[in-house]
Structure formats: C-alpha cells, structure tokens
Request: fold
Amino acid sequence: MNPNIFDRVKAFFIKPDQTKSGLLYFNALLQLGKDASPIDEADDVLGCVDSVEEIYKRTFGTYIQNPKTLSTRRLYLTLLDRPDKFQKIDVPVRGAIIISPTGYSTKGAQNGHVGICSDWDVVMSNDSRSGLWLENYTSRSWKQYYRDKLGFPVHFFLVK
Reply:
C-alpha cells in the first residue's frame, strides 16, 4: 500500500531529490487532492495541460511553453523541440512527464492526456470529472487506455 502524502513529503525531506524531475514530482505531490489549476483557463474536462503547466510554473517559475499552452499536441511538440530542457526517455520514472498527445490517435480519438509520474509506477494527472489533481493511473493502465483503447502514443520526458 502506498504511504500517505504526509509520509511521502516527510521522506522527500529526509532524502531530497534535487534533480529537476525530483522537484517537479515533489510539487506535483503537494497538489494531490487539489485543483492544480484553479483559474480554469481550460475547463476541468480538458484541464490536464493547464494543471501540468501550473505545477511546472510553481516548480521552476516559468511555463513549459511561453505563452502557456493548453494543448497536449503543442505541449508534446515543445517537449520534443527542447532537447536542452527535456530528455525523451523510454520508461516511466518519478518526476517524468507522461503524454499522449491530441492529434496522434490511430483510432480517431479526440483528446489526449498529460500527467506526471509518481512513485510505484503511479501517474498523477487532472481528473476530468472532479477537476482535482489525483493519482488516477499507473503507467500500465495509462497505456491500456490511451495506447491500446484510444490509439494514442505514450511518451515520457525528464526535465533536464
């Protein structure tokens, strides 16, 4: 069973991960159970990029893309186009950005999704029903849903 948020924050302070991806993970962890993008520049149903952008800004002081994007497609292209800031990796690790970008579905699905990898192969992302930042996937269930069912690619990026 996963430790509660308090124990995980405490563990982070005992053995801090000062890498950029470690800091992104920590700030994402602090948003669990909250609306990570309360201004709602995007409706909660489509608020995944808004949430990731706001967590990134809380961590590093700027958005991933300036001006801020609300599109998984544009976010994905930015992650690809900035190898100086983002490293594409093959497997999920804590603090990695996981993205299945809109426009790349082989099955005609409309909306992609983005989140941040947590511990125990869990993924944190915006929940479209509640608008809250939650641990609502594992990388396996993400792949089963977005890749296998909806036909999206699944990519991982580390912040450098």
